[in-house]
């Protein structure tokens, strides 16, 4: 039953993958089929030519006549060789073309899928293993897979023609040749299985190897590696993984060589017996030297061809299994979490009556299923400025990721005006929200592009970009740069200018200001800003919030005093909510946090 299931899995996926290849490069696939068919008949023709050439040459040597016939066979053999070599070159070029075309399409599809699927997938390490399996070396594998069935047909034709030739001389030889072609089939199939299992084990190890090497070589980590003297420690970790990889690989090689030799020794014995048998038969039936050379060549060719067929079958099994990861990855539905209703909202509601209403929101990450948000409820009225405060790990960032629709597998409801977030297409939501995350991205592009991608359709709106930079306070340092907004920033490419932490943060804030968002979210926006920049940011936020909702996570409670609503989070719950004055009057957790920060400042001021 399991075998039937497996064969069905292989054939269904083989069909889908071949269809994919055919769709990408039909012309090159057709050329490949023609080449394979031609190559199928070459060994048979070579065999007949060899026999005649050897016979006519030995005739020339023995009787010194018929030289022209020998030369004719020689010429024919050379011509065939020339054609075979030209076809091989054509095959190489055709393969390179196919590899580029398939590589391009596969990489494009994998990258587009990875950039569009839900954030949930990125929370688990196993997803990265799948992603790696789906993206590395797949174009080469696809070509191998496409070649597999063709090689089987090609080699089977070759084998049948050659066995036909052998049968003319001796049945026993033909039967022995066929029998000896069976073991390599099973051996190669077994080796293929072993190689596939090895790859599954090696992928997480090689990701670790690459990770430790990146830590040792990367610019981001260069400072800490030196200050904490991590070189020895990290090299040790890298060595450990490298040795692990080597041990797995060498163990596989040992098993493969052992299996191979299990076949090679009896094969040589049978071949010797077989050729001895031919000599004996020749003494009875008067074979010519050409017959002997042709038969021994046929024997070796059939052996090679049988091994190639078994390798092709094993390769198909192996590649289909490995490529099924690619198919599974490409089949992940981007839409699956975008709308959870048959009648999705078409327009983003203008948040001007009820604003955002959150009811009994609970959420757990897929990784550990622990509730990180527990029955959270609140309402943000139109145009309000909201501050979310609380302990580390209380769930503040998780809450905003749910509010933005980055995670949709929550319980409870998030209403944008009267529309449930789950009824809105993700793209529609993302067009109307803007965010600066704690770990915002630094793009090694020009400053203009770094800001402009906040609203990709207005990437060339220089005025708008400048206005956004002025609001965030970034304009001041940008205009001092040699190429101003055209300055390339970052440290990946030569000639670019690197920015300070605070400057990067201002660029990221400009990006969100540039977006047409109705809801703006800032996760610790002032973490790298100097006190003046922080103050001007809050003033800008106040101006911006006219008609818009802004949500800000902050650990500096002094920045929250003017907020219209403060949500205080602890352990996944909103434990207090209200304005600064209301919460101070309650004298609860917020007021104790605020007073403790305040006393820190006061003590320092008094000490001075
Ligand atoms: N991707 C994730 N997978 C699993 N657990 C996560 C993930 N992200 C966060 N958590 C866990 O969820 C809890 C809430 O994290 P969150 O980042 O929301 O806290 P926070 O209040 O923003 O903290 P901080 O003030 O330190 O930034 C933490 O216990 C954290 O370990």
UniProtKB/TrEMBL annotation:
In the bilayer, the protein is annotated as: Multi-pass membrane protein
Q: Does the keyword Acyltransferase apply?
A: no
SMART domains annotated for this entry?
Answer: AAA (SM00382)
Pfam families given for it?
A: ABC_tran
Cellular location of this protein? Cell membrane
Give Gene Ontology CC terms.
plasma membrane
Question: Mind listing the UniProt keywords for this protein, alphabetically?
Answer: ATP-binding, Membrane, Nucleotide-binding, Transmembrane, Transmembrane helix
Q: Which GO molecular function annotations are given, in alphabetical order?
A: ABC-type transporter activity; ATP binding; ATP hydrolysis activity; ATPase-coupled lipid transmembrane transporter activity
Any transmembrane segments, and where? Answer: 160-186
Instruction: List each copy of the ABC transmembrane type-1 domain by range.
Output: 31-304
Limits of the ABC transporter domain = 356-596
PROSITE patterns (alphabetical)? ABC_TM1F, ABC_TRANSPORTER_1, ABC_TRANSPORTER_2
Output the InterPro entries linked to this UniProt entry. AAA+_ATPase, ABC1_TM_dom, ABC1_TM_sf, ABC_transporter-like_ATP-bd, ABC_transporter-like_CS, P-loop_NTPase, Type_1_exporter
Q: Is Iron given among the entry's keywords?
A: no
Protein's UniProt name: Putative ABC transport system ATP-binding protein/ATP-binding cassette, subfamily B
Q: Which organism is it from?
A: Paenibacillus aquistagni
């Amino acid at each position: 039953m399991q075998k039937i299931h497996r064969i069905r899995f292989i054939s269904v996926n083989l069909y889908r993958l071949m269809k994919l290849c055919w769709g990408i490069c039909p012309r090159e696939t057709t050329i490949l089929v023609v080449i394979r068919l031609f190559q199928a008949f070459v060994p048979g023709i070579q065999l007949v030519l060899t026999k005649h050439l050897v016979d006519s040459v030995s005739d020339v040597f023995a009787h010194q006549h018929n030289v022209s016939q020998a030369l004719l066979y020689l010429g024919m053999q050379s011509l065939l060789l020339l054609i075979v070599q030209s076809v091989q070159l054509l095959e190489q070029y055709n393969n390179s073309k196919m590899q580029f075309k398939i590589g391009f399409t596969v990489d494009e599809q994998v990258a587009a899928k990875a950039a569009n699927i839900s954030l949930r997938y990125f929370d688990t390490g196993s997803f990265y293993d799948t992603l790696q399996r789906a993206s590395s070396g797949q174009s080469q594998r696809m070509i191998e897979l496409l070649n597999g069935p063709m090689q089987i047909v090609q080699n089977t034709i070759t084998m049948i023609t050659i066995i036909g030739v052998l049968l003319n001389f001796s049945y026993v030889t033909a039967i022995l040749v066929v029998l000896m072609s069976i073991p390599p089939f099973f051996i190669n199939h077994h080796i293929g299985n072993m190689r596939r299992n090895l790859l599954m084990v090696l992928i997480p190890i090689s990701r670790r190897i690459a990770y430790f090497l990146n830590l040792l070589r990367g610019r981001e980590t260069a400072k800490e590696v030196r200050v904490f003297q991590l070189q020895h420690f990290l090299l040790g970790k890298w060595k450990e993984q490298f040795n692990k990889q080597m041990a797995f690989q060498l163990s596989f090689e040992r098993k493969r060589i052992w299996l191979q030799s299990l076949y090679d020794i009896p094969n040589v014995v049978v071949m010797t017996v077989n050729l001895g048998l031919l000599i004996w038969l020749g003494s009875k039936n008067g074979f010519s030297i050409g017959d002997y050379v042709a038969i021994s060549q046929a024997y070796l060719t059939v052996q090679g061809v049988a091994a190639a067929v078994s390798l092709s079958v094993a390769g198909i099994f192996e590649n289909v299994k490995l490529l099924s990861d690619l198919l599974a990855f490409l089949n992940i539905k981007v839409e699956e979490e975008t709308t959870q209703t048959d009648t999705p909202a078409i327009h983003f509601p203008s948040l001007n009556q009820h604003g955002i209403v959150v009811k009994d929101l609970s959420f757990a990450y897929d990784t550990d299923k622990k509730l990180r948000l527990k029955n959270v409820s609140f309402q943000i009225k139109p145009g309000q400025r909201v501050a979310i405060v609380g302990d580390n790990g209380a769930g503040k960032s998780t809450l905003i990721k749910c509010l933005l629709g980055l995670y949709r597998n929550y319980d409870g409801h998030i209403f944008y005006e009267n529309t449930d977030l789950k009824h809105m297409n993700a793209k529609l939501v993302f067009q109307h929200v803007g965010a600066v995350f704690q770990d915002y991205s630094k793009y090694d592009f020009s400053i203009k592009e770094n800001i402009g991608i906040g609203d990709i359709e207005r990437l060339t709106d220089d005025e708008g970009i400048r206005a956004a930079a002025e609001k965030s306070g970034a304009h001041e340092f940008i205009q001092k740069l040699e190429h101003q907004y055209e300055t390339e920033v970052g440290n990946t490419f030569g000639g670019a200018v690197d920015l300070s932490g605070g400057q990067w943060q201002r660029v990221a804030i400009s990006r969100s200001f540039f977006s047409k968002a109705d809801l703006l979210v800032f996760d610790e926006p002032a973490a790298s800003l100097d006190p003046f920049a922080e103050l001007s940011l809050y003033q800008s936020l106040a101006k911006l919030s006219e008609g818009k909702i802004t949500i800000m996570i902050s650990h500096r409670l002094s920045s929250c005093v003017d907020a219209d609503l403060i949500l205080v989070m602890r352990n996944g719950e909103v434990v207090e909510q209200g304005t600064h004055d209301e919460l101070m009057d309650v004298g609860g957790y917020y007021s104790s946090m605020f007073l403790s920060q305040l006393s820190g400042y006061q003590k320092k001021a008094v000490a001075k």
